[in-house]
Each structure stands twice: as structure tokens, then as C-alpha cells.
Amino acid sequence: MAISVLVIEDDIQYGQMLREALEHFGYRVHLSFSATGGLDIIRQNKVDIVISDVNMPGVSGIELAKKVMAMYLDIPVVLVTGVHDLSLVKHALKLGVSDYIVKPIKIDEIPVVIERNLERKRLEARRIQENKAEILFKALKALMRALDAKDPYTSGHSQRVVRLAMRMAEELQLDPDKKFTLMLAAYLHDIGKIGMPDHILHKASSLEDYELRRAKDHPIIGSQIIGEIEELSEVASIVRHHHERYDGTGYPDGLKGEAIPFFSRLLAIIDAYEALVSDRVYRKAVEHESALQEIRKNAGSQFDPHLVEVFIRVLKKYRDQTEPSAREFSIRQAPVSFRIDRS
Ligand SMILES: [Fe+2]
Fold first, then answer.
1. Residue 59 sits in the same domain as residue 156
2. Cystine design at 329: which of 79, 166, 266, 306 (Cβ 3.0–4.6 Å)?
């Protein structure tokens, strides 16, 4: 879609000349002969950039720029000024006006000025996005630390699940966004255990019925915690369903087959395998081969049979390789907007 430029110029002839020139360059142009008229246009139309005269009767270009900056953070304002107004405009630049052009305008330079200012706004928007992502990660890290303090086993378990999940992601050739979603879900899948009483979480003997019911709440609690963050709604859903079974007898919703989110089906396999090959408070670890046999035996009932095949393939592939650290699969795999250093 063509870039939409709002020109505000009280000199009718000059304004029309600017409009023609800009249209000639392929821009969509709105023209207003006053600042207040210009503000009305911004309210009712999509405007990408404003080019406004400084000296106008009524509301001046600088007053208009202040209003636009206050209301529309993403619209750059370029002032058009005579040499005598230059000090005024330099003051406006300090207030946040994007740029200025000195009259007489050299028409050929206008597209350069427009592109330069739009690019600056794009970079600004990206920086804001990255800052948001950084805060989000710090919050998630804090959340994991909280669970770690309560139950060190679960935190170590989650990191090992991430490692295997990323290998599955490679095998399935997932795109970076999907891979990133899977990584977050793997990290956070058991975060709901933060809401489980310690005596259930650390119990060495088998659980009583009521304790089992409490333990089975952890996917719901986890998805509620993560669901508080709007950007993570998909991760919340994956977490909610990581204990569903392929045959529909799992929890919390008894979803069956393809109705279970794909990444939940995938995590269910990794989660089960990883739990089997690790020591738990209530039992010793089992050997890799017998864990694998257990997974294979449950393909089609507990697990998605197609994904079990992929999982076995992945394990075979990496079996003899040295274990990379979980950190290797950290934030560097995030899409650009999310990529920050997780030191
Ligand atoms: Fe779990």
C-alpha cells in the first residue's frame, strides 16, 4: 500500500504544488490548509507521515507537531520552514519533532526526507518491541527461579526437556517462530507446580487420591499463570495440555488425537522419557533402552505414534554425541523481535 502523507500548508497554491509533486512520486496525499483540519484528517485516515508548514494562522505548525507527538507516537512530523524560523524549529526538534525542510523546498529531496523519517520511526518501534521482550524474559526467568527454589528437580528437568525439544524441532524443520514457542513451552510446562503443596511435590511414597487430584491441577495452574501474559497465549495452551493422552484418557480436558495441540503431544513424549531416565524422589532412573521401550509400547495409546517415531529417530541420531548445554538452545533461537542476551 502506498505511503500516506498529510501535507498541511496554508498557502493554497503551494500546498497544491506539493500534493502534485508527492503524487508524482507515488505517495497517497491528504492536503489540509490548516492545522486543525490536519488533525481531523489524522483522526479519520491512516496517515504515515505529516509534512507541515510552520507559519500558519491559528494553530502553528509547532503547536500541531506537539499535538501529533502527544497523540500519535508512530507518526513522524516534518516541519517546512523559512530560514527566519529556523531557531524556532531547532527548538521544536528538541521537543521531539522528527525533521525539518527549509524553503524553498527542493522537490527531489522530499522522498529522501520521508524515507529517512519513516525508517527512524520503524527503528524506534523495534527498540520498544525489544525492550518489551527483554522485560518479558526477565519475568519468565524470575518465574523459573521461583520454581527452582521450591523444587530444584523440576527446573533441571525442564532444561533437559528443552534440550530434547530443540532436537525434535531441528528434525521437524520448524521455522524460528515455532521453535521459539516450543522452547518457551518446554521451559515452562511444569511451572504450575509452583502452586502445589510441598508435601505432595516432595513425597517419596505414592500419592493418595486427593493428593493426586492436586498434582493433576498443575497444567491448569501453569496455563493460568502463563495466560496472564497476552503474548504467550499459545504457550499457555500447550502447557495446559501436556498431560493429555492420545487416546483421550489424559488430563485436564481428556482431549484426543489431533485435538491435542501438536506441541503438547510432542512435549508429552519428551516429558515422559526424561522423567523415566532421571532419578525421582519416589523411584530410581531407568536405563535409556527400557525408557525407550516404554515410550514405544505406549505409542498410539498415550502418545502420538507419528511423533514417537520422530522421537526415536532423534534419540538415535544424538545418542553418541556429547550433550550440549541447555544454554546453547536459549534465546539465540528467538525471532529477531525477541532476541536478547539471556545472561
Ligand atoms: Fe507436568
1. no
2. 166
**d(CA 337, ligand 1 centre) in Å:** 29
Clarify whether residues 234 and 163 are in a common domain.
yes
* 199 and 332 belong to one structural domain: yes
Give me ligand 1 centre to Cα 288, in Å. Answer: 20
Query: pTM for the complete prediction?
Result: 0.65
> With 0-12 CB in 10 A as exposed, 13-18 as middle and 19+ as buried, what is 89?
buried
Cα–ligand 1 centroid distance for 104 (angstroms): 69
Using the mean position of ligand 1's atoms as its centre, give its distance from the Cα of residue 191 in Å.
8
Beta bridge partners of 6: 30, 50
Is the sign of the CA dihedral 15, 17, 20, 22 positive or negative? negative
Q: Quote the ligand 1 centre to 280 CA distance (angstroms).
A: 14
Distance 202 CA to ligand 1 centre (A): 14
In terms of Cα–Cα distance, which of 261, 268, 272 is closest to 236?
261
- Domain coverage including residue 40: 4-123
Whether 142 is covered by a domain: the verdict is no
Residue 19 pLDDT greater than 80, yes or no: yes
Total structural domains within the chain: 2
- What would the pLDDT profile of 207-220 be if each residue is shown by its tens digit? 888 888 888 999 99
* Ligand 1: centre distance to CA 149 (Å): 17
Q: Cα angle at 59 between 56 and 64, to 5 degrees?
A: 100
Sequence-ordered alpha helix ranges (H) in the chain:
12-24, 35-44, 61-71, 86-95, 110-150, 152-171, 176-188, 198-201, 209-215, 218-227, 233-240, 262-276, 288-297, 305-318
CA 243 / ligand 1 centre spacing (Å): 6
Q: Is residue 133 part of a domain?
A: no
